[in-house]
Amino acid sequence: AQSVTQLDSQVPVFEEAPVELRCNYSSSVSVYLFWYVQYPNQGLQLLLKYLSGSTLVKGINGFEAEFNKSQTSFHLRKPSVHISDTAEYFCAVSPYSSASKIIFGSGTRLSIRP
Amino acid sequence: DARVTQTPRHKVTEMGQEVTMRCQPILGHNTVFWYRQTMMQGLELLAYFRNRAPLDDSGMPKDRFSAEMPDATLATLKIQPSEPRDSAVYFCASGLGTSGGGGTGELFFGEGSRLTVL
Is beta strand B113-117 parallel, antiparallel or unpaired with respect to B10-13? Predict the structure, then answer.
């Protein structure tokens, strides 16, 4: 079985500051990894995904994430945040070659202060 | 631009009434999920379909909730009778499963149906 842990339920940062949202996962099989973003009053949309290859993945809006297999982590980073990045961010894993479903973390609410 | 379509976007109803929410998944997707989102509980999986067959509905209150896929272009979530605690945003998502579906498990979400039960 798979599980996803997002340790920080809320992360407040000042505008133009860097941010890192943490995600750790547990799985006995290889997985695909995702970060989704949910803006207020909207559905979730894909921010970026790791399927294979380079462990540093770049997504939309200047976000990137690094897959670390030894630490089973997939932390999301942005060097300089903007007010428009205020949203909830969900980390998710999906197992290879299995009928199992995608598993979401509990989410991290990113609030940007001017 | 392919997208998941949900109706209604907003629904206000009184306790005891039947509520039906509909979802049109992206054409060609073989998996459909129903999620419920509240401030207190976050994102909860209610039901999961693969090739129109229900694979997991363990997150759904069986006595009042039911989910079906009458055909590949329509998924429905029904609550009967509705209760105030059912007030939430209900999301439908579709995708290509990893097992033989040619996908990665990535999901595409609809805009949600905001339900208020008075």
Answer: parallel
Please, are residues B79 and B65 in contact by the beta-carbon 8 Å criterion?
Answer: yes
Q: How many CA atoms lie within 13 A of A79 on its CB side?
A: 2
Q: Cα(A17)–Cα(A24) distance, rounded to whole angstroms?
A: 23
Using CA atoms, how far apart are residues B52 and B69, in angstroms rounded to an integer? 6
What is residue B114's three-state secondary structure? strand
Distance of CA A86 to the CA centre of its chain: 14
In 3-state terms, what secondary structure has residue A62?
Answer: helix
Q: Do B42 and A106 touch (CB under 8 A)?
A: yes
Task: Give which of A5, A41, A101 to mutate to test B binding, by max B Cβ within 10 Å.
Answer: A101
Q: What is the dihedral of CA B9, A60, A57, A1, to 10 degrees?
A: -10
Average pLDDT taken over every residue of chain B? 91
Query: Tokens 């401030």 appear where?
Result: B39
pLDDT tens digits along A22-35: 999 998 888 889 99
Asked if pLDDT for residue B99 goes beyond 80, the answer is no
